[in-house]
Amino acid sequence: SSTANLGVRLDLKQIALRCRNTEFNPRRFAAVIMRLREPRATALIFASGKMCVTGTKSTHNSTLASKRFAYIIEKVGFKPQQEIDFKVQNMVGTLDVGFPIRLEGLVYAHSTFASYEPELFPGLIYRLVSPRVVFLIFVSGKVVITGARKEKDLTDALTKMYPVLVEFRKQNITPIPGIPTPAIAAAPTGGASTQNGETQREMEEV
């Protein structure tokens, strides 16, 4: 999400009446909700001239959406200031590491930064110090990163956190009663051990 300040007082009723793709119900919420199709974005526009833009997929799209919202409002008759004071406030990233994670072991080893209360919330909350972001880590391997101000913060945070997630990867899955557990991983491991053993004996004989 990002914010901008148009620097002009707005008549929200006029904006809602004269602009398409808008919603305005002052009894429920004191802002006009305006939507764009390209780039796909939603803006909350307040009478003070402040605006909150959400739903974009990148900083570039958020900047572009803010300029387009300002242009639409200008067409209604409210000319924004030259600089609309655009700021990115929060970026959210999602990913799937592709393996289940032992959340109990992770919170025990990193108790300074992590908290995990499955009775209240199914995910582990991990607060990284630098960059200052928050991870929501789920046992399935799905991860949400929030609190970043720049796209680089997301990539840097994941680079730091990924080895920790790999360290607490679940190795054995609990078998379900009545369903035979496939021994997919056992065969290659055993074959490799036998091959290594034969190679070692050959070296000793030489």
Tell me what you see in this structure:
The protein is α+β, with helices and mostly antiparallel strands and 206 residues long. Helices cover 33% and strands 23% of the residues. It is built from 5 helices and 11 strands; from the N terminus they run E-H-E-E-E-E-H-E-E-H-E-E-E-E-H-H. Strands 2-3-4-5-1-6 form a 6-stranded antiparallel sheet, covered by helices on one side. It has a 5-stranded antiparallel sheet with strand order 7-11-10-9-8, covered by helices on one side. A hairpin with a 4-residue loop joins strand 10 and strand 11. The radius of gyration is 26 Å and the shape is elongated. The C terminus is likely disordered.
Strand order of the largest sheet: 2-3-4-5-1-6
Q: How far is the first residue's CA from the last residue's CA? A: 67 Å
* SS-based class: alpha+beta
Number of helices: 5
> Percent of residues in helical segments?
25-40%
**What share of the residues does DSSP label as strand, in percent?**
15-25%
* Biggest pleated sheet: 6 strands, antiparallel
The count of DSSP E runs of length 2 or more, i.e. the number of strands, is 11
Shape: elongated
Please tell me the overall pLDDT.
84
Rg calculated over all Cα atoms: 26 Å
* pLDDT < 50 stretches: 181-206
SSE series = EHEEEEHEEHEEEEHH
